[in-house]
């Protein structure tokens, strides 16, 4: 758009209007536009236990989410740093998970590599990210409770509130001590409104009510890349799967 002005000599001059800032993109709408079957997003994640100035990395995870039209259809996640155990890999399709390595490495029958269970994100879920912005309902709740400033969205939500809106949270930490635990979160958004980073923190005793965690904070930093890439998460070969483990 232009403005027409008259110069001192009577000539017409054309001047552009001042540029206006673009309206912030709606994160929920941006997410839903990416929910195409056979596509997904990748993430990397670091969990740190913080005690004042002392910081201890508890776990690192990498993974992929595969989309359906409604949200997450499947995931493939590997966790490392599980209290001295080897890496744990969890493939989840719908409401079924396949667990391998980590805690399960020495508990499976001979010739089996995977333990099939109901939807559960393995041992790594207990130290993993409690906020999943790939779930439209969860993201909508975070937007509603949070405050937007530029490309950042910050807020606070409780374990109980997350449990109501997030299948991811319910499966990650099915056993926890304090539903009133408050989670502080910060979402970083791209210019297109997509979440590129989530940081969250909460009292460590919210999950593990043990004296060693008194006064300490669990902090999780998750970064999302390759939004909309083609993804294919498949179940393990049936011959490698067991529904039983040794106690």
Strand ordering within the main sheet:
9-10-11-12-13-3-4-5-6-7-8-14
Q: How much strand?
A: 35-45%
Measured between the Cα atoms of the first and last residue, the distance is 72 Å
Which regions contain 5 or more consecutive residues with pLDDT less than 50? none
Please give the radius of gyration in angstroms: 23 Å
Q: By helix and strand content, what is the structural category?
A: mainly beta
Main β-sheet description? 12 strands, mixed
Mean pLDDT: 91
Task: Give a count of the beta strands, DSSP E runs of length 2 or more.
Answer: 14
What does this structure look like?
The protein is mostly beta strands. The protein is 13% helix and 43% strand. It has helices at 27-34, 136-145, 159-165, 167-172, and strands spanning 2-6, 12-16, 39-51, 54-67, 72-80, 88-93, 96-101, 114-118, 147-149, 152-158, 182-189, 195-203, 217-230, 241-242. β11 and β12 form a beta hairpin. α1 (27-34) runs antiparallel to α2 (136-145). The longest helix has 10 residues, at 136-145.
């Amino acid at each position: 758009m232009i403005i027409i002005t008259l110069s001192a000599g009577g000539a017409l001059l054309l001047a552009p209007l001042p540029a206006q800032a673009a309206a912030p993109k709606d994160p929920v709408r941006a997410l839903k536009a990416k929910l195409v079957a056979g596509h997904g997003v990748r993430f990397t994640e670091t969990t740190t236990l913080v005690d004042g100035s002392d910081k201890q990395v508890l776990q690192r995870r990498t993974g992929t989410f595969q989309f359906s039209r409604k949200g997450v259809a499947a995931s493939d996640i590997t966790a490392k740093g599980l209290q001295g155990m080897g890496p744990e890999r969890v493939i989840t399709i719908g409401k079924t998970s396949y667990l391998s390595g980590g805690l399960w490495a020495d508990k499976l029958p001979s010739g089996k590599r995977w333990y099939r269970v109901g939807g559960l994100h393995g041992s790594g879920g207990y130290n993993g990210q409690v906020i999943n912005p790939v779930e439209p309902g969860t993201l909508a709740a975070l937007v509603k409770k949070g405050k937007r400033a530029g490309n950042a969205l910050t807020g606070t939500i409780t374990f109980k509130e997350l449990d109501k809106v997030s299948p991811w949270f319910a499966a990650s930490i099915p056993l926890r001590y304090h539903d009133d635990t408050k989670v502080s979160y910060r979402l970083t958004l791209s210019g297109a409104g997509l979440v590129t980073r989530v940081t969250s923190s909460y009292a460590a005793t919210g999950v593990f009510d043990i004296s060693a965690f008194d006064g300490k904070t669990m902090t999780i930093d998750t970064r999302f890349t390759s939004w909309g890439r083609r993804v294919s998460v498949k179940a393990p070969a049936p011959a490698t799967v067991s529904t039983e483990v040794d106690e």
